[in-house]
Amino acid sequence: LQRLTLFTLGMFTFWTMLCDKLHISFCFYREYYFVNTSLSWCDALTYCQNNYTNLVSIQSQSQSNQILSLAQNTFKDAAWVGLSRTDSQNWQWSDGSNVTYTNWERDLFCAAINVDGTWTDFTCSTNFYFICYLVFMEIENKIILYVSYPI
């Protein structure tokens, strides 16, 4: 019987190394915070970085749906997310994560999520509510026992 240890990182799981000793597992969790103060994108980014982790980055339709369901009746028009243009063609998340999902109309330099879930870009000086996230880590020592049965 070959024994493997399951490590988790956030929503990702993968198998690695023989399970011959105690291993440490790291779990990352993300909480969303809707800030009902209207700020420019730059000021919202600074606020989130000083008080949480960053402006929210959205990597999938399911994550977008989760955020919108939590935000029901929180904002009326749009709320800043951490997406902005680095130049006329390229978009970047403020936390450095890859842009793997988009859902919007486009033309300006900072992105906001609308109440219907679509995204709109605005001039970065426009004031909107905004969405921050906080990442925290939990460390667990785990011993995983495996039992083999004859086939």
From TrEMBL:
- All residue ranges annotated as the C-type lectin domain in the record: 32-133
SMART domains, per this entry?
CLECT
Pfam families per record: Lectin_C
SUPFAM superfamilies per UniProt: C-type lectin-like (SSF56436)
Q: Which UniProt keywords apply?
A: Signal
The superkingdom listed in its UniProt entry is Eukaryota
Leader peptide range in chain numbering: 1-19
UniProt keyword Plastid present: no
Q: What is this protein called?
A: C-type lectin domain-containing protein
